[in-house]
Amino acid sequence: MTQHKVHSRREFIGMGGHGLGALALSSLCSPQIIAATPTRPLNKPRAKSVIWLVMNGGQSQVDTWDYKPQLAKSNGKKLEGFDNEVGFFPEKVGAIMQSPFSFKQYGQCGKWVSEIFPHTAKHVDDIAFVHSCHGKSNNHSPALFTLNTGVSRMGYPCVGSWVTWGLGSENKNLPSFVVMTDPKGRGLPKGQAQNWGAGFLPGSFQGTSLNNVGQPINDLTRSKNISGRQQRRQLDFINRLNREHQESRESNAALEARIRSFELAYRMQTAAPEVFDLKRESPSTHSLYGLDNQRCAHFARQCLTARRLVENGVRFVQLYSGGTENQKSWDGHNDIKGNHRGFADEVDQPIAALLADLKQRGMLDETLVVCGGEFGRLPIAQIGPKPGRDHNPYAFTTWFAGGGVQGGISHGETDELGLKSIVNKVTIHDLHATILHQLGADHEQLSYNINGLDVKLTGVEGARVIEEILKTSRS
């Protein structure tokens, strides 16, 4: 008869503790994060894809879309009680400054729009303006990270990554998430590629950033020294080696992303050149977008490319107007008049053309267009040779068009000077929740389990879909 050793209580607890500790350590050290199954649409999607136009640097709401006649009445007066708790340059606080631009009404809705957007203003009946956007950071990098990821620090997945991870793509031969940055040598937005990174999601869901010079994607054309059959055999051999390497080790998310990227790169060589070939568009389309206009041709090419991408099943496209440095973006600390007029001249015609083109092709109803920056500007002058405006995270405008949004309306209000949002405040998480909702996803259900914690794009602070701007809630 076999004798079984009787363990003491102390030994039993010790063995159990070591076992549990080993399990925990294995989980923490594993290079492959355990993920929840991606959410599939829980409600009827109103949009198939998103085009997000980022006015990088912080577009001034009171000089563009949020008309404030009280600014002119109070021009030159001191803003009583203002201690510049939000601005970035407290030593340069000036008086209240009226907008250097005139406003007039457009459309059946009678929306007041700045003179610097004469083309986009013609589409206000298709646009829902959210004037009460409210953030927390007055610094570009954390504000941009929040706009893109919902978190003010780097390392978290951006909206495009959440969307494509959760909902997938309709075209396996193109990236599901594409990013286009300012092409005029102004550099990337502050925070750079972290703004379209996948964070802790699989690396294959990060944004694909297009080149601003030459081919939009490197090595898009197969070398003349290799045939299609040879390339396919070469890729199959590489993949077989990678899979063998992967099978003999713990699952590795980075390797899996690399294998997928090889396959996607191969497929793109067939599909992408046609999509990126703007010569296939008619001369009238080129003229509509402004490809023949030197001031806006660069952004026109990007907007037209965005339309061609979503037309071919790309899920999420993001465009950046403006680069790194202050005056090379919408960051109008100096000469707000020259800064904003210059950048508006670059984007106004292409944005209007994008809306018109999508609508004419019957695509606007299924494409959600979002436009705005990481924060707004103060209604007071920033002192300088040519006055500008300092940062203001407490009041900025974001607008939506298409994708099931009710046009011709304005939601939320700022105070009479545009200093703070006071009616129906909208957070960045609310913007994200609304985007997910229109794509058919529930922001409270779309989560990723990382080290035992279910992480969501909209965080734990609470978020709400902006129902007031949606067609379904107003019909």
Q: Radius of gyration over alpha carbons?
A: 25 Å
Give the termini distance in whole angstroms.
Answer: 81 Å
Helix content: 25-40%
How many structural domains can be distinguished in the coordinates? 1
Approximate strand percentage: 15-25%
Identify low-pLDDT runs: 1-37
**What is the SS-derived class?**
alpha/beta
CATH architecture: 3-Layer(aba) Sandwich
What is the strand tally?
18
Examine the coordinates and then state which fold CATH places here, giving the name of the CATH topology.
Alkaline Phosphatase, subunit A
Give the rounded overall mean pLDDT.
87
Strand order of the largest sheet: 7-6-8-1-9-13-5-14
CATH class term? Alpha Beta
Please state the overall shape, judged from the principal axes of the Cα atoms: globular
Order of helices and strands: HEHEEEEHHEEHHHHEHEEEEEEEEHEEH
Q: Major beta sheet, specifics?
A: 8 strands, mixed
Secondary structure tally, helices: 11
Walk me through this protein's architecture.
This protein is an alpha/beta fold. The chain has one domain (9-215, 272-474): Alkaline Phosphatase, subunit A (3-Layer(aba) Sandwich). It has helices at residues 9-29, 69-73, 140-149, 159-167, 228-247, 253-276, 283-289, 297-311, 336-360, 428-438, 471-474; strands at residues 49-55, 93-96, 103-106, 111-114, 127-133, 177-180, 208-209, 316-321, 367-372, 376-377, 380-382, 391-392, 396-401, 409-411, 413-414, 421-423, 447-450, 453-456. It has an 8-stranded mixed sheet with strand order 7-6-8-1-9-13-5-14, sandwiched between helices. It has a two-stranded antiparallel sheet with strand order 2-11. Strands 3-4 form a two-stranded antiparallel ribbon. Strand 17 and strand 18 (453-456) form a beta hairpin. Helix 5 (228-247) runs antiparallel to helix 6 (253-276) and helix 8 packs parallel to helix 9 (336-360). The longest helix is centred in the C-terminal third of the chain and has 25 residues, at 336-360. The chain is globular and about 75 Å long. The protein starts with 8 loop residues before the first helix and ends with a helix.
